[in-house]
Design a protein that fits this description.
This protein is α/β, with parallel strands linked by helices. It is built from 14 helices and 11 strands. β5 (203-205) and β6 (208-209) form a beta hairpin. α5 packs across α11. It is globular, with a radius of gyration of 20 Å.
Length: 398
Amino acid sequence: MAKGIKDRVAILAMGCSRFGERWDVGQEELMAEAYLEALDRAGIDPGMIEAAWYSSHYDDIGAGKAGTPMAQALRLPAIGVTRVENFCAGGTEAFRGAVYAVASGAVDIALAVGVEKLKDTGFAGLPPASRGTFAPMYLPTHTNPGNFSQLARAYGAHHGVSHDDLKRAMAHTSMKSHANAVKNKNAHLRKAITIEQAMNAPMVADPLGLFDCCPVSDGAACAIVTTPEIARSLGEAAPVIVKAIQLVTSSGWEVQQSSWNGAYVHTARIAARRAYAEAGITDPRSQLSLAELHDCFSITELVTLEDIGLADEGTAWKRMLDGAFDADGEMPCQVDGGLKCFGHPVGASGLRMLYECWLQLTGQAGERQLGAPSLALTHNLGGAPAQNVCSVTIVGAA
């Protein structure tokens, strides 16, 4: 019987570029920015890296879907580099590949990098995806704000939350992330906002206003992973250990069965349940110290809090207004500013979330430090509420 990967892999070091409108650099420089930070923190020779995984959803380098852009940009040794995509969960997919390689014993040290250069595409939102085996998902009738506005409306209708109450809860969600991002030099948006500004912002897709939507950004993040034993031998006395990675892909059930009410994300509930079982977590609210959630829209964070068991069903909006998920609340979420203030370079976001968890768990988060957290969770969502890929990763002390 499969035993999972709990305690088999350690994060030796991580790195993260500055996110934003990086007109001055390309994908190569963004990858190098994150990689060189991780390499410096790890204190290892690049020749010790034995395999790598590279996540990028859009191809602006012209090298197709191969791993060569990363191998060349980072001057990696003659190793295998695998290019991965999994909608917006691609960063976690790259991390999963590297972790599985170490957990299996195939390699001792592996690298995961996620990167995206979106500002140069010319699109105000995400560019059109390439037409593949599931092209109907990208027909012109679908937009990301439109898809998630339907999630908000379904949530409000199912739980009896008024339009104004939901707007205020979403506004608090965004206000919280902006307040956190002020303390983060790598964030794209580093300006505090008020709840009133968020509530009165121009409408994008009712009830989602401007401040309910994350921006388009450029950025990269990186992780170097190894075994706990090797990490300790390299000087990491208390390395961050991977406790669980679970990834669930929608089979289409949501849009084919009348039993889905549109007010939650089915895959998130399954991924969280499996991740908690793998990590040995029985009470996530008391055992987890912080969470980094895929807040592409403010409603996504609210719904996810319930999907992964950090709030009872139908109560996340109230608890958000009570400050439960603020940096000084019961369960700090988006302590770094989240997608809301970093933006969403598709291939990088999953690793960027993990970077904040790694900083917090190693006590290196500076003025954002939450004390001495012990367990952290990242939630990475790709696609639409009805058709998506969802991953949940849990990391913590040995």
